Structures are given as structure tokens and as C-alpha cells.
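@here heads up, posting the sequence + SMILES for the A1CAB run so it's all in one place. Ping me if the SMILES looks off, I pulled it from an old spreadsheet.
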Amino acid sequence: MYELGVIGLGHIGVPIVNGALSGKAVSADQVILYGHHPERLEPLLLVGASAAKSEIEVVSSCHYLLLSVKPQSLSELLPKIKPFLRPDHVIISIAAGISARYLKNALGEDTKIVLAMPNTPLQLGFGTTALSRIEPATQDEFAFAMRIFGVSGTAEEIPAELMNEVIALNGSSPAFFYRITQIFADRASQYGFDHETAMRLICGSMIGAAHMMLSSGTSLDDLIQAVCSKGGTTIAGLTAMNDAHLDQALIAGMEACTQRAYELGK
Ligand SMILES: NC(=O)C1=CN([C@@H]2O[C@H](COP(=O)(O)OP(=O)(O)OC[C@H]3O[C@@H](n4cnc5c(N)ncnc54)[C@H](O)[C@@H]3O)[C@@H](O)[C@H]2O)C=CC1
Ligand SMILES: O=C(O)[C@@H]1CCC=N1
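bot reply: prediction finished. Complex C-alpha cells:
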């Protein structure tokens, strides 16, 4: 019996397993994998994980089952695995929009579930994952799931009712931040900066600002004020951004992200 089984090894599945192995949340000989692209499994097999020949083989031989397929693939996958589930299985689902209710309707009322929303920076050890324990999964089982993600960054427990809303905060937000950076970097190259220099300056400022927000003990308002010299450049920039409805653009993005999660879960 393997401790962790994984079905679906794509953009996020592979880094989750990589991180869990290098962070020693689970040992490679305790991991069994099934994906549609065998070449993606190769590096994981080289360090000692096992490959299954089918979804059923994974389910039949693991305790924790990480489902990292697209939400749209679950309607086909869940009925396939249901007959092979045991009462001790713990399903860890990272599918955006897929609620515990959806999973219990498909797999049975007593299914132990952990919902998780990770993000891709976990591939560099800087992930942030939001998790929620669903009864009857136990605290120990939840702690195992927290470790799987937590060794690749940080892991936060959140209420299950906020799993869709959290996607805009951590799951999708790396792409939002990449897009904002892209806008800054494109303008910087028009000013004449080479791309690498601009990226170091912009990203370094983002990292610094993030540290200030998390660790300085200063409120967001006060941090903003400390940068805004009276009559200076920052207030001119912020005023123009506000006049261009920055808040509306970002809130519309968050709302559309959340709305899509609810649609995926129908
Ligand atoms: N990409 C991201 O940043 C994040 C993704 N997620 C969630 O993670 C899940 C996976 O997303 P991605 O990795 O981006 O998608 P992806 O499309 O890169 O990977 C999914 C993989 O699952 C495979 N697959 C589908 N059905 C399968 C089956 N029956 N057996 C074995 N393999 C199967 C596909 O061939 C594909 O390789 C989604 O549910 C998504 O909502 C959550 C947080 C962040
Ligand atoms: O775009 C998506 O649907 C997934 C969920 C969060 C990040 N990627």
C-alpha cells in the first residue's frame, strides 16, 4: 500500500509531487502516479516513485489520493474510481470550483476529503496553499495534506465556504501579478530599459513590498503614505491609476475568477 496516489500530472501536479518528495513530506517509495503523459513522470520515477497502469491501480493501492486533473475531467474520473474507494481513503482535491458537496455527491456521503488550492510558485518552494478539512477526514489526515503542500512554501487552513473566493487571492493571482509585471516591463522597455534590468527592478520591488506588507507591522495605508512624498511622483502615479479605475479593473478580475469557479462546480 502506498501512502500517496496521484492522478493527473500537469502544470501543478508534477510540482506538487516534486515538492512533497524534496521536502520529505512523503518518501518516493510511498508514492504511486498515473498521468496521461508518461514522459512527465520520468523524473519522478527516477527518484523512486512508482507508475501505475491505470487510475484504478492508483486508487486500489493508496491511502491519500490527490486528484490533480482539470475540473472538467472529474465528471468522467469520479464514477470510474468510486467502486474502488475504501472508507480509509482520503481524497485531496485541488480542482478549482469543485466543492466537497460535488465530491460527496459523486463519491459518497462518508468520503474523507481535503480541499486544497495551491499555486505554481510551489515549484520553487514559494507556494501558498489554502486548505480545508471536510468531515469525516481527521485532524491527522488533514495534517498530512498540509505537509504535502506546506513543505513547498506555506499552507493555510481556511473555511470550506471560501474555497472559490480564495482562488483570486492565491490560486490564480500569480497570473494576475505576472500580467501587472508585464505591463510595467513593456512600458519600461519603451523607456529604453533592457528587459532583464527592468524585471530585476520591478520584481525586486514586488518582493520588497511583499516583505514590508507581511513583516513591517505597518498598515497598508501607512506604507503607502511613507512612499508618497508630498507633491511627489508616487501620489501623481496613484492618482492617475485611481482616475483610470484601477480598483474597478482589479475587482472585476477577482469577481470573474470567483464566478468562473462557481460555474465549474455546477
Ligand atoms: N495550474 C495552476 O496554477 C493551478 C491548478 N489548479 C487545479 O489543478 C488541476 C490541474 O490543473 P493543471 O495542472 O493546470 O492542468 P493540466 O491540464 O496541466 O494537468 C492535468 C493533467 O491531468 C491529466 N488527466 C486528465 N484526466 C486524467 C485521468 N483520468 N488520468 C490521468 N491523468 C489525467 C491531463 O492529461 C493533464 O496532463 C485543475 O483542477 C486546476 O483547477 C489549482 C491551483 C493552481
Ligand atoms: O485557472 C485555473 O482554473 C486554475 C485554478 C487556479 C489556477 N489555475
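MO: The pocket of A1CAB (ligand 2) is lined by residues 96, 167, 171-172 (CB under 6 Å).
MO: One more: Residues 20 and 148 are 5 Å apart (CA to CA).
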